[in-house]
Structure formats: C-alpha cells, structure tokens
C-alpha cells in the first residue's frame, strides 16, 4: 500500500509551507449552461472585462492538498476542509503557488493563500481538519444580512429553497455533463498535483481510489444545469467563495452517492448578485453527510441584458 500519496516538492520557512510554481489548465473552454458559453470561454470573459477565459476556482484546491497532507497526513483525507474567497482571476499560462501558514495555537487550523509570480493574490482562506473552526467562510457567511429586496437576477430565489435528493457518481470515464465537459481520467492527466491514491488501481487505506478535492466540486455541482434554481436568463456566473469540507471522508471514485442542495444566503455587490448554496453529499439512504460544499456563485449584472430595465421597474414599484 502506498503511504506517500504525493511527491510534490515543498519548502518550509518558519510556520509557512509553500508549494512549487504550477500552471493550471483551463478544461472548461467548451463549458456551456443555459444554452450559452461561460466565463471560461475567451470571448465571453473578455466581454465582461477579463483578459481571457478564467481558470475555475476549485482547480486551485489541488495545489493545497500536498501541503495539508504534510501537516495532517491521512486525517486530511477523512476530515479536511478548504475554505476560500477567490481574489483575482487566473489565466492559462500563468504560474501560481500555494502557501499554508500554520497556527501555533491551533494545530488543526491554518491560513492559506495563493499568489502569482507578480505577487497578485489569487485566493485566501483557511485549511482545517476535525471540524476546527471558524473557517474563512464561517466568518463571511455570518456577516451577511437580510437579502436586498431590490435584486433582479435573483428576484425569484429565496433563502431556504431546496432541491430533492439526487443520485451522483463519478467513474474514471464518466462524462460529467455540459458544465464539466471532461472525465476524471482526463482531469488526472492535467491536474497540478496528482496523488498516487487518485489512480484507478490505487490501494488506499479506504480500499478505493479517492477523488481530488477539486473533483468533489465537480461531483456535487455537475447536476446544477439539469436541476437549476430560478435566476433570470441569460447571465454569466463566476465562483466567488467556496468551501469543501470532508465529514466522513474521503469521497471515492466509482462510488454511488446522493446530494441535497439548499440556498442558505443571498448577497449583492456593485457588479453581482450572489446565491450561496450548501450541498450535502451522502451515502445512499444515509442521513450523515460524507462531505459538504458551500458555494457562492455570483451572477454578473452586466451579463443580463434587461438588468437596468427590470431594476428600474422594481424600484418604481417599491
């Protein structure tokens, strides 16, 4: 049995552990939802003011896993949590490095951040195990007040909305739908940090190959286009905040699971309207989550053609 799941070269400076420079790949250039291209398409991204198609946020989570495993070993795969806010877009060809800062007063929790070569911060948050908190998004979610009634794209979305439990599974050669036009096997060929425990033939402590944390995001989110919430269309979304937490992990490849989704908060900025969704992953028929994902998806106001018109109508009726 392989006991060293990563061979990533790490550097240590005081309480900080850093990974090597990596160039993540954009595997969502052909992604579509609601019949149109996404922020991961060059033309669509450029219309909204980005330099090019963006790398999807959870792609970066893989660079943190070797760092976390160096601290917490197998416990990471059973109860690990990455909780982060995305700060700047990353484009294919750019190099980024992951950093984790250990907390001498809390051995189960650490700060994380990712930087580009020029020092630009790509994300910031926390890593933790065994439910240690608060996480970065615990703090952020707790600061959100009541939803602004003057919202347009999300005017038909309410806190507490739920979706029925849905069966999900990710085999190595399973296509994951329009939102994720690639397979697990294809992702593993391009992932920044591949673990020996991800391989189809892996002999792991849990008896089966495990999913990289970024692919847990794919597993629980890929059904969203087939069972959507009711935001107004067309629009372009981007991930702003994301937390993936293992409660009774790891999440395994080629294994049947079920998910439940719930809107837990609604927020707004000058350029976006945001929907926060909590997704819980269960063993079939189970009532204790194996993993959860909290995701803040922001809809770009400029991407909705009737935004100004409908906003004026709502304000007039208020």
Give keywords.
single chain, 318 residues, alpha+beta, Thiol Ester Dehydrase, Chain A, 11-stranded antiparallel sheet, two-stranded antiparallel ribbon, 13 strands
Q: Summarize this, please?
A:
By secondary structure, the chain is an alpha+beta fold. The protein is 18% helix and 29% strand. The strands form two sheets. An eleven-stranded antiparallel sheet has the order 1-2-6-7-8-5-10-13-12-11-9, with helices on both faces. Strands 3-4 form a two-stranded antiparallel ribbon.
- How much is the radius of gyration in Å? 19 Å
CATH top level label: Alpha Beta
Number of domains: 1
Helix content: 10-25%
Structure description:
- With 318 residues, the protein is α+β, with helices and mostly antiparallel strands.
- The chain has helices at 42-47, 61-72, 75-79, 136-142, 184-190, 213-221, 307-317, and strands spanning 11-13, 16-18, 32-33, 36-37, 81-86, 96-103, 106-116, 121-128, 162-168, 237-246, 257-268, 272-282, 291-300.
- The protein has a single domain, classed as Hotdog Thioesterase (Thiol Ester Dehydrase, Chain A).
Question: Helix and strand layout, with pairings?
Answer:
Layout lengths: L10 E3 L2 E3 L13 E2 L2 E2 L4 H6 L13 H12 L2 H5 L1 E6 L9 E8 L2 E11 L4 E8 L7 H7 L19 E7 L15 H7 L22 H9 L15 E10 L10 E12 L3 E11 L8 E10 L6 H11 L1
């Amino acid at each position: 049995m392989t006991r060293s799941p990563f061979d990533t070269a790490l550097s240590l400076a005081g309480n900080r552990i850093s990974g090597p420079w990596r160039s993540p790949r954009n595997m969502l250039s052909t992604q579509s939802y609601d019949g149109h291209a996404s922020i991961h398409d060059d033309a669509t991204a450029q219309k909204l003011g980005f330099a090019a198609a963006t790398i999807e946020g959870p792609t970066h989570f893989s660079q943190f896993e070797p760092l976390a495993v160096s601290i917490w070993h197998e416990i990471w795969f059973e109860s690990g949590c990455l909780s982060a806010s995305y700060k700047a877009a990353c484009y294919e060809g750019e190099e980024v490095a992951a950093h984790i800062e250990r907390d001498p007063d809390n051995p189960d929790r650490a700060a994380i951040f990712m930087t580009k070569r020029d020092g630009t911060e790509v994300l910031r948050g926390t890593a933790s195990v065994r439910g240690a908190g608060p996480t970065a998004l615990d703090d952020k979610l707790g600061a959100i007040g009541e939803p602004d009634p003057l919202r347009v794209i999300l005017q038909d979305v309410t806190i507490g909305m739920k979706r029925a439990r849905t069966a999900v599974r990710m085999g190595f050669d399973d296509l994951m739908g329009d939102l994720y036009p690639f397979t697990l096997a294809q992702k593993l060929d391009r992932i920044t940090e591949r673990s020996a425990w991800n391989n189809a033939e892996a002999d792991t402590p849990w008896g089966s190959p495990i999913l990289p944390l970024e692919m847990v995001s794919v597993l629980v989110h890929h059904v969203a286009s087939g069972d959507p919430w009711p935001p107004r269309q067309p629009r372009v979304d981007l991930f702003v905040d994301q937390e993936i937490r293992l409660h009774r992990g790891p999440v395994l490849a080629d294994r049947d699971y079920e998910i439940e989704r719930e809107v837990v908060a609604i927020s707004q900025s000058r350029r976006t309207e945001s929907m926060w969704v909590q997704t819980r992953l269960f063993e079939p028929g189970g009532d204790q989550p194996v993993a959860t994902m909290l995701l803040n998806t922001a809809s770009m106001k400029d991407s909705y053609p009737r935004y100004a018109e409908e906003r004026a109508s709502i304000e007039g009726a208020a």
